[in-house]
Amino acid sequence: MPAVSKGDGMRGLAVFISDIRNCKSKEAEIKRINKELANIRSKFKGDKALDGYSKKKYVCKLLFIFLLGHDIDFGHMEAVNLLSSNKYTEKQIGYLFISVLVNSNSDLISLINNAIKNDLSSRNPTFMNLALHCIANVGSREMAEAFAAEVPRILVAGDTMDSVKQSAALCLLRLNRTSPDLVLMGEWTARVVHLLNDQHLGVVTAATSLITTLAQKSPEDFKTSVSLAVARLSRIVSSASTDLQDYTYYFVAAPWLSVKLLRLLQCYPPPEDGAIRGRLTECLETILNKAQEPPKSKKVQHSNAKNAVLFEAISLIIHHDSEPTLLVRACNQLGQFLQHRETNLRYLALESMCTLASSEFSHEAVKTHIETVINALKSERDVSVRQRAVDLLYAMCDRSNAKQIVAEMLSYLETADYSIREEIVLKVAILAEKYAVDYTWYVDTILNLIRFAGDYVSDEVWYRVIQIVINRDEVQGYAAKTVFEALQAPACHENLVKVGGYILGEFGNLIAGDSRSSPLIQFDLLHSKFHLCSVPTRALLLSAYIKFINLFPEVKGTIQEVLRSDSQLRNADVELQQRAVEYLRLSSIASTDILATVLEEMPPFPERESSILAKLKRKKGPGNLHPDLDENRKERSANGGTVAASPTPSTDLLGLGSTITTQNSAPPASKGTSLLVDVFSENIAAFPVETPVAVGPVADENFSREGGLHPYCTLGDSFVGIQSWQSIQFINPKIPDMRCLPLAPFPSRFVCKNNGVLYENQLLQIGLKSEFRQNLGRMYVFFGNKTSTQFMNFAASVVCQDTLQPADPTVDGGAQLQQILNIECMSDFVDAPVLNIQFRYGGTLQNVAVKLPITLNKFFQPTEMTSQDFFQRWKQLGAPQQEVQKIFKAKHSMDTEVTKAKIMGFGAALLDGVDPNPSNFVGAGVIHTKTTQVGCLLRLEPNTQAQMYRLTLRTSRDTVSQRLCDLLSEQF
Amino acid sequence: TVWIRFILIQNRAGKTRLAKWYMQFDDDEKQKLIEEVHAVVTVRDAKHTNFVEFRNFKIIYRRYAGLYFCICVDVTDNNLAYLEGIHNFVEVLNEYFHNVCELDLVFNFYKVYTVVDEMFLAGEIRETSQTKVLKQLLMLQSLE
Question: Which residue ranges does the record assign to the AP complex mu/sigma subunit domain (chain B) (predicted)?
Fold first, then answer.
């Protein structure tokens, strides 16, 4: 065979490539390329007709330039011209250029199709193959329309060369994938199936792929392929290692074809015909036997090829799940691989055994390998191998080994890779519940989960432990005692405080007899955590307190005092304030009887499938290559659990005050209500009060039940409603030097409003609901798909500094996706964060970037004050840099009521009767940031005659004065 | 339905020496995939498997000197068959270019596409016999 020398045939191309490689910098490369492009352009435009060779050379250069990553906007016509050349090399370059560069909507498509047509009918196998490869590579709708009828004819024609048949089969496969409606197999079916008998194994290989794809779609039409595939497989498996000559790979007979035939058979149940079935069983036994034979070569290629067939055979055995002997043999074989020195084999054995564990015939056999698998969990270097070990332990778990497996998983959790922690937590929680014989073990396990990996314990997990404790009398006292002890740790995870608060609120009385856990001690313990917790947890604790008042009349006074304190009764958070007020009132006016009725112990929850299990099933990886592939992705066995890890924040990210978490959740798309507005009205009911973790319109049926006050009813997303979500973090909007992107600002009405439509184009509508309290805020962003087509690869991320995050990848047509942003104001700021949205609609990528209406005034707390106070403070803020004043023309009509509403919407308290001139407006408030509070006073003096305003801002910080003045002056 | 989504040959520095796509991606997405694959594959060492989960798919890869040969397939697909598919392809390249090196792939990029199309088409294995492929390539060579 002659060696191919560098760039032979096209010297100019080789020189050009060398030049490019010699370029010292990107600039030099671009310069060289531009020079070449100019040269090529002038050649193409020149008066002199180019010969085929030159055309080929220049087109090839253009292709090279394109592959380097540069845009090419000419030369397509010349490439198309090459297609009609009679020289192979010219044609080949033409087809290559078309395959790589031409998109389906090119106006050259009819010329291209014409050239393909000529080549297909040329009876020249080389040209036919070039044309078929081009169709297979491009696979466009237009090509399917033009050739879907012709290709099958070529495939089954008696005089078609073998290599053309191979190409035709796979070309047809591609057309079937891209335009199944155009590829009608009907009359060709039998002849295509018959290709499995072809004497050319290359043809059989290609045909098997085609038939497998078609059989998956219409198994009935292709079921005659089963007997042919078994016969073919049998001949291969029983052949001597040299029989198949060209198709023997490192002493293994036709490994790829064997794998493909075994895959085709997995489209069908075990053959009904006894003879065929017997023959297949024989094949599978032979393959298993061969695995035990001494290797014919020491090369890894030999064992890999052999094992490729073996693993596929085992897949088929598992798929049939009907031959106990084969299943057990398969399991033993995999057991040997578990200790193999090749990491690949250990990985594959763990993976394959996972599916074996779900078969009743082999479950016990799999269990015998538990020690090896546990060892793998501890010693494997590759995290993906450890992940498979976790999957397998989960799959092989049953009542007999649950304690051991759960203990091993728990201890692994402490050192586990962050990427798989959440999944392990879910798995442990499920196993602990499923196989709990005594529920004390279950309670201990879940508390350990929170202790070891609190950040990865999702709400479902701690909801579930509460459900179970409430439903099982026998464990309530133990649970109360255990959480009480756990809470005594100086630092406990917030999830533990939640569980502890809930359980002590319900069952604290069961341990109150012990003087070490008297009611007062219990209360003090809980309350010592209060100030460290987030608002939802505080809300839960307040409910626990009122429950305490009912359980323990002796601590009523202490608790009422806490409820009565300013930090509760006047809490800036509406929900906390409301709870404090209501509970205090309830405890003061209600009789003991009424109190006991209202605060009765929670009734048992209805039994249902564990929500955690549902979550594990639903959990999916963060992104697809391409969403429409999703359906093609076979789920691994339910038991094995195909759970791709989604990114979760690591501990330190959550702990920092400067971070914000974002939840993504796709609320169950309400079919009838397609647009944003509708869903808005639906959602409003879900947000009347601060429901910090309520992520969708799903009513919280678990906690709010009929009868009695349910203090926990705002706990959050229901056990059933939550979709997979990701916690992500971003830097908050304080950064003064934040990148300014060239975007349109948000509508200025959002300065004084928190809800509404932020952005809208023909495809997408973005709505907002937001709420702010002190230096914190929460924004619900609704993405409405206005079309009837699914958006794919949907990603919404917030840029505050330079951090980008993924979101849920698809939005169905007419559906709506919701994202929740938690916001914290660190210090005063000017630039608003930017919301970047990217998604694929139809074929094109859409980009939208909008500024989020998060402005400094959102962190205003209104302050009421008397006229005297106001002017005293006004004077105190008299330093020149503290005051900013602006005189401006009115842009809107100068309506007093509208102005008042705007000032209040801006966030300041509107102070009546402070200014001696009644037509002036004055306001006061405090801007809350994490580090400081900035007192602000404002005065707006309208001059209706001149249609002018004068706005004066005085605050203790010059930047705040300036910013607020800028923001507010835009409103009138 | 399982098939190859793409084949990539990259060097250690992340330069692409071949990118063959078996489904529609736009150019930005291709670039992203190329970078992600490089990031995922190059951090792994000889003790790791030749398989790595990638989005909802997996990459089967093998390193030859400074080049990574990567095939992206469905998670349920047969790992070892593609691993040896790569090796079979590399042996053909080696024979065709007589001790293939990275530069051969650079200067003869348009021929590499021909080799790929002979062995893989529409994301499926087309021909596995090295003898047959090389015979065909030799025939095509003679047409120059």
Answer: 4-143
